[in-house]
Known about the structure:
Layout: H1 38-53, E1 58-60, E2 70-76, E3 82-93, E4 102-108, E5 116-122, E6 124-130, E7 136-142, H2 143-156, H3 167-180
Antiparallel strand pairs: 1-2, 2-3, 3-6, 4-5, 6-7
Amino acid sequence: MPASQSRPLPAGGSVRPITRWGTPVMHRELKDVTEFDNELETLVKDMVATMYAAKGVGLAANQVGVDLKVFVFDCPDDDNNHVTGVVCNPVLHLPEGKERNLEDEDEGCLSLPGAFTSCARPDRAHVTGVDHTGEPVEFVGDGLLARCLQHETDHLFGTVFGDRLPERARKKLYKQHQELADSYPEDWPVTVLVDEPVIER
């Protein structure tokens, strides 16, 4: 699908603190979105503002402490087309059999800021769902966009990408985060101490 699959992201939100790994809402399946109201629109606006403040390419609702299946993203695909959108109640479709190719690339998470390690994922992904107004949406991606769609959908089902790593790699990831923890205040990215590199998620 071309970049025209993008849907505009709502603007005008407020930056919220990002919830860290270890907080219970990060490690359980979230609730389906059933009310497409002003409260949801405010949440989505705030998530967009928070994602941009943190220089991420995607953000899930539990990353701002909210127990709802919704994520936002602004991420390039392999052709460097920036694709944007809001997805509620996503269903993830991944290639199977001979169509399934894994890419082992660096991955990061805004909820474990500053830490990166390689994580193998299918190189294509297809997500269906609805946006914050209840309209059906569908996004197909390769490369980083495929990784983003998988990473954000994982969040809504209580999986952080560290759960997909061998124990040794996971410990190394936590150590990397701890070494940089002083650069990320508890209310980050409301308060920003350093000019961080772009974190994948």
